[in-house]
Amino acid sequence: MRINDFSVLAFDCYGTLIDWEAGILAELTPWLRRNGGTQADDAILEAFGAAESSVEAESPFRLYPDVLAEVHRRLAVTWGIAKDEAAARAFGASVGRWPAFADSAESLRYLKQHYKLVILSNVDRASFAESNKKLGVTFDRICTAQDVGSYKPSPRNFDYLLKEMAGMGIAKERILHTAQSLFHDHAPAKAAGLRTIWINRRKGRPGGGATPPAEAKPDWEVASLAEMVALHKRAG
Question: Which one of the listed residues 12, 19, 124, 185 is annotated catalytic?
Answer without folding.
Answer: 12
